[in-house]
Amino acid sequence: MKSDPRNATINEELAEFSLFLKCIFYNLWIMKPKTLVMSIVGRSNSGKTTLMVRLVKELKLRGYKLATIKHSHHHIELDTKGKDSWLYSQAGADAVVVSSQSMMGIIRWTPGEFLLSDIVSTYLQDMDIVLVEGYKAESIPKIEVFRTEVSTELVCQGDKNLIAVIGDKNPKLGIPFFHIDDKASSIVNFILSDLKI
């Protein structure tokens, strides 16, 4: 029985298409630059939020696409009583999305706390940088804000992921130290070089 020459052509086309799909997968998933996630940690009233705001402004000036995540141990209320979205939640909706031309918000009840990695991979994978306030137990690069008027001990002393300290006094840990009044540009230069961005 003779083989049909059309089968050879079909097989070649399938092989080419398979290679094409592998190239797309490689470029979209393997070669996709990974989103940098870094945490700013410290005790209450140490200046974490102030530092985060300074870093966000400096990174935006440099053209980075970034997000922030604030970790809270308390219940948070993201909706306004009486608004339509609040009424949907009160009626039992598990998730409410509010969307406009320039912004979208998702309010979603969860059975437990989302993992940081899930938040980033689900909602923020298109960001260059995600700055996190908190999540001190996560294995991600951390900068601690340390002020002696708030505490004499660091929150993350001994943590191998602690890459720098920013504060009013150098705790001499053998890692970079920046004074709390140093320019944000110096701190951002360090972050970008240390994390090789």
UniProtKB/TrEMBL annotation:
UniProt cross-references to Pfam families, sorted A to Z = MobB
Q: Which domain of life is it from?
A: Bacteria
Q: Which InterPro entries has this protein been placed in?
A: MGD_biosynthesis_adapter, MobB_dom, P-loop_NTPase
Residues of the Molybdopterin-guanine dinucleotide biosynthesis protein B (MobB) domain: 37-168
- Organism of this sequence: Candidatus Jettenia caeni
GO BP term, pick one: Mo-molybdopterin cofactor biosynthetic process
A molecular-function term among this protein's GO annotations: GTP binding
Coiled coil segments of this chain: none
Q: What is this protein called?
A: Molybdopterin-guanine dinucleotide biosynthesis protein
